[in-house]
Design a protein that fits this description.
This protein has about 120 residues and is mainly α. The chain is built from 3 helices and no strands. It has one domain. The longest helix is centred in the last third of the chain and has 42 residues.
Length: about 120
């Protein structure tokens, strides 16, 4: 069961990394719709990873309670940890790209609001 959970998690992590790499390319080429279509699926994958993590922890505890030496899973779990850290670093790279763009839009909105006396759009009839 532990092997199956780790394999499922590794599959999700690989897919997430592929999506983040696609996100980075789409940002470079201003393909915003493609970004949005992946967001929901990425959110679902993250929720599955968290759920699998809890399940994995419970399975390891169960094996320990059964008297099984869980060190037999060490290499597999260590590899999963390396992949999760790699996903984290890649996601951080995406955030570094997205954050300045987000800040730019925020500043534009604040400037327009300030120019229009506290309203985003000044409608004159």
């Amino acid at each position: 069961m532990i092997e199956k959970i780790v394999d499922e998690m590794l599959t999700l992590v690989k897919k997430m990394k592929d999506y983040i790499n696609q996100d980075i390319e789409d940002i470079k080429h201003a393909r915003h719709e493609a970004l949005l279509t992946r967001n929901e699926e990425k959110q679902e994958m993250m929720e599955k990873i968290v759920s699998y993590k809890q399940e994995l922890n419970q399975e390891i505890i169960n094996k320990m309670n059964e008297g099984i030496d869980v060190n037999i899973y060490r290499e597999m779990v260590d590899n999963l940890e390396v992949e999760l850290k790699s996903l984290y670093e890649l996601n951080k790279k995406l955030a570094i790209i997205v954050q300045p763009i987000q800040q730019m839009y925020k500043e534009i909105v604040e400037e327009l609001t300030q120019i229009n006396g506290g309203k985003m759009v000044d409608v004159k009839a």
